[in-house]
Amino acid sequence: MAQSIEALDILAEQFNKLEGVGRKSAMRMAYAVLDMPKEEAERFAQAILEAKIKIHRCPVCQNLTDQDICPICTDPARDRSVICVVADPKAVNAMEKVREYRGVYHVLGGLISPLAGVTPEDLKLRELVNRVADGSVKEVIIATNPTIEGETTSRYLSKLLKPFGVNVTRLAYGIPVGADLEYADEVTLTRALMGRQIVDD
Prior knowledge:
Layout: H1 6-16, H2 23-35, H3 38-54, E1 56-57, E2 64-65, H4 71-74, E3 79-86, H5 89-98, E4 103-107, H6 125-133, E5 139-142, H7 148-161, E6 167-170, H8 186-194, E7 197-198
Parallel strand pairs: 3-4, 3-5, 5-6
Antiparallel strand pairs: 1-2, 6-7
């Protein structure tokens, strides 16, 4: 039986904590780090630490940024009367690749999921309501994944925002039910954006 190397196992365990990384992939990554020259490994570790220190949530839209306010929120060419609501920063990146959307974003930081213990109180909903409440927002586009959690969150948002008289629309999905927005191709996302519909209560 092969002898376990504690430091290697600990390193692999850390990689295994990353989303989508299985045990075998984590071990390959751990070996790859060991194959690096010492200086490169130090730069790798420093990059992780610097990202954790410098990157934070934009106080306006809750997207990730290393600036006081993210570039999208400070861009004067953006239409601030339209807010696209997404679950996480990865979805912002997906929407930006489309190049058809010129509004701004709001990142919820997750989706409502009672089974996973995620409630509306866990999401950045208060910040969204504050943005809509000033009366300058005309439309809120809900761009959550077409899953049970995404649909539950969409309906909750529709009811939450209805008193403000804002149009709440949902992307028209040519995306298969159960698929993740971040993996959709640009043509599909463009069609979904153009064919968005009013959300029913």
